[in-house]
Amino acid sequence: MKRIIAALTSMALVTGLAGCSASGTDQDQQSGSSSDKTIEEQLRFTDRDLDPSYDEATATKIVLDGSGASVTGEGATADGSTVTISADGTYVVSGTLADGQIVVSLPGDNDKAQIVLDGVTIHNEDGPAIQVDQADKVFLTLADGSTNVLSDGADYALAEGEDEPYAALYSKDDLTINGSGALEVTGNYRHGIASKDDTVITGGAISVTSAEDAVRGNDAIKIGGGKVTVNARDDAFHSEYLFYIADGTVNVESCVEGYEAEKIIVHGGETSIVASDDGVNASAAEDSTSTDDVSQGTTPQNSQPPAMPQGDQPPAMTQGDEGTPPARPEGDAGGRPQGAMAPPDGQGDRSQDVGGSQDGAGPGRQGGAMTMPSASEECLIQINGGTLVVNADGDGLDSNGYIEINGGTVFVNGASNSDDSGLDYEYGATVNGGNVILMGSAAMAEDFTGGTQAYLMERTSGSAGSTIEVMDASGAVIVSYASPKAFQAVTASAPGCASIVVR
Fold first, then answer.
1. Phi-psi region for residue 75, left (φ > 0), alpha (ψ -120 to 50) or beta?
2. What phi and psi values does residue 47 have, to the nearest 5 degrees?
3. Which DSSP helix (H) or strand (E) runs through 101?
4. Using CA atoms in the order 262, 267, 268, 271, what is the torsion angle rounded to 10 degrees?
């Protein structure tokens, strides 16, 4: 996987996001590294991602019966409690396996399988309930009105020296979950849902409980619909490269970190995260080069984030044939301050900022931003729309690179009493729109470093249940939020904001 290379012009795209490289015009006929795919292509949902329809009359039927299965049609075989799907096609599965699995192994580079779960319960004591060994892409469709349950045991029977598979629903290739049914996944061994390429969710009511990460997509996690509820003992959503939500509802009831990836883009949807560490964390991918050689106490000369698509609407979620390369989304030319990230005259009044300065050396960063070994200019949290509510015991929003807020509603609680707070970044944080209230401890409280929308920071205390009101110059409340826990500092931004009041 090649390191992500960021284009730094206002209209440029970030290239090199991992996934599958295009060998033609069909995204779902791609395999291997996708270092030459643009960010626009990575943010697209294909027609088949979004369309859960299928022809039951022509589909192969697989009926699970406790300890075995029967197959009617072509492309699948049953051997005891193991069902193997070995051909491109659609498969409708029903019934129960008490200790078995479905394995997908398709021979062709462009072969895809649609597996329709219609009232399925599968438990595998020593491996994944569903395991995709080879396919261009697998669509897991949740049949309307169905409830489906996948689970694994606490120990896998792995070959010596092997560390995979490692999830109750596991895929070596692209995985899409769609439909309108329900799916309950319990990962007792390690993870709940995991793909070594892209994990895409566009529908269904999905509940994941996991011993480690709930949902993983090595190259990307993309959410374009559905409702996902998570209880994880480690990360709720983890990708090395890209996490993207355009629509849908995510409710993280418990986790260590909520969203973790090198680039995190919130373009829509409703997100609620309760985390024991950071709520949203942009950290460098394992094969990215961090800025170890940057001197302590300095920041990059051109302190601005990589350019990413902006605008009021997310990239279009439909296009022609499956995988047709997309046109530029509407609103992509949204502006971003160039050069130093200072607000225009009259914007970003910092009169209430205690110890802050326009160069980003605010409280907790005396003498300039300390560039840590984990810092990377590839890291970005970008919020363009939707609703994001975070209650974290670490930092609320934490980027080892940049943070950019262009719209949406953002309410964030960081730690109440520690070296963490609502906002933490290495190189810069800009705000160009949205209603934003960030709360946390005062020890490491940080302000925005610039943007086109006014912003404020005030060291003011409140207890659980206190209401923070952001007001305009006339004293009218623009936005308010009742904090679920104590805080000692507030950073806020809203159109025309002039003051912060805690009641």
1. left
2. -55, -40
3. strand 101-105
4. 20
pLDDT interval class at 143 (50, 70, 90): very high
The pTM of the full predicted model, rounded to 2 decimals, is 0.82
CA 410 from centre of chain: 16
- 350-384 burial, b if ≥16 CB within 10 A, otherwise e? bebbeebebbbbbbbbeeebebeeebbbbbbbbbb
Instruction: Please state, in angstroms and rounded to a whole number, the distance separating the CA atoms of residues 107 and 105.
Output: 7
Q: Is the pLDDT of residue 334 over 80?
A: no
Amino acid of residue 189: Y
* The pLDDT of residue 145 is above 70: yes
- Residues contacting residue 477 through CB under 8 Å, at least 6 positions apart: 469, 470, 471
Query: Residue 410 above 70 pLDDT?
Result: yes
Of 146, 156, 148, the closest CA to residue 125 belongs to 156
* Closest-CA residue to 169 (of 152, 147, 148): 152
Spell out the domain ranges in the chain. 58-248, 277-289+346-503
Give the H/E segment covering residue 49: helix 47-50
Q: Which of 477, 480, 482 is nearest to 466 (CA)?
A: 482
Tokens 């970008």 belong to which residue?
382
Say how far apart CA 308 and CA 325 lie, in whole Å: 18
- Closest Cα to residue 7, out of 285, 332, 318? 332
User: Measured between alpha carbons, how far is 262 from 258 in angstroms, rounded to an integer?
Assistant: 13
Q: Residue 6 — pLDDT band, cuts 50, 70, 90?
A: very low
33-35-36-37 Cα dihedral, nearest 10 degrees: 90
pLDDT at 287: 65
Kindly state the tokens that stand for 11: 């209209």
Distance CA 130, CA 185 (A): 11
Nearest partner of 236 among 202, 208, 206, judged by Cα: 208
180 burial class (0-12, 13-18, 19+ CB within 10 angstroms)? middle
The torsion defined by the Cα of 288, 290, 291 and 297, in degrees rounded to 10, comes to 150
Which of 411, 425, 422, 168 lies closest to 300 in space, CA to CA? Answer: 425
Is residue 337 over pLDDT 50? no
For 139, half-sphere exposure in the C-beta direction (CA atoms, 13 angstrom radius) is: 28
Count of C-beta atoms within a 10 Å radius of residue 465 = 10
Q: How far does CA 188 lie from the centroid of its chain?
A: 22
Beta strands 499-502 and 467-471, pairing class: antiparallel
Task: Provide the pLDDT for residue 48.
Answer: 98
Whether the predicted pLDDT of 53 surpasses 90: yes
Three-state DSSP state, 409 = strand
CB 399 within 8 A of CB 425: yes
